[in-house]
Amino acid sequence: MLTSFKDSQEVKLFLTTTEKESVTDNYTIFYQFGAFMDRQSYQFYKNIPYQLVLVGINGQTFYNNNAIQNISTTELLAKPFVTSLKADPSLIASIPADYELIKRSINGPTILSGTAITDEKNHTIIGYAFIELTETDFSSIYDKLISPDVNTILVANQYNEVLSSNKKELLQTKKKKYTALNH
Prior knowledge:
The chain is of the alpha+beta class. It contains six helices and seven strands; from the N terminus they run αααββααβββαββ. The chain has helices spanning 2-7, 9-16, 23-38, 73-78, 80-87, 135-139, and strands spanning 51-56, 61-63, 92-97, 110-118, 125-134, 154-156, 162-165. The chain has a five-stranded antiparallel sheet with strand order 2-1-5-4-3. It has a two-stranded antiparallel ribbon with strand order 6-7. A hairpin with a 6-residue loop joins strand 4 and strand 5 (125-134). Helix 2 crosses helix 3 (23-38).
């Protein structure tokens, strides 16, 4: 999902637009960007909504669904998560965020995924794409299918941080190493 935003020429043009361009050029860029965004689905999986946030190095931002920004762009770009994306622009990573990008009426654990967006000529970072969804929404994919009394489901990132689980007490903890049982 993040790859479609990472690779989109419309997103790249939007993130690099400046006030120095003509009104006609800006109109064309915003029109093409709007058409691209209209074609996107804002559902992660079967009616599970997510929030998309695009942040340009030049300060240009986009929040889908008229979401209200919860932290400033400056604060966001200073977060260690963004620093890790900056260190490896090809990376698409997820974390159990201890902050929320958007304001919600109901607070709870969120999963934040992100990637750097680079220009094709210089391979420099021009912005970032983030997808934020609540752990409750994400876990609804499997919660009704598998009982926590029978099996434990853990979804972890590359740092062994538990992003989602059917055992809620495991959220935002480190995944333990499991060894295979020999029979």
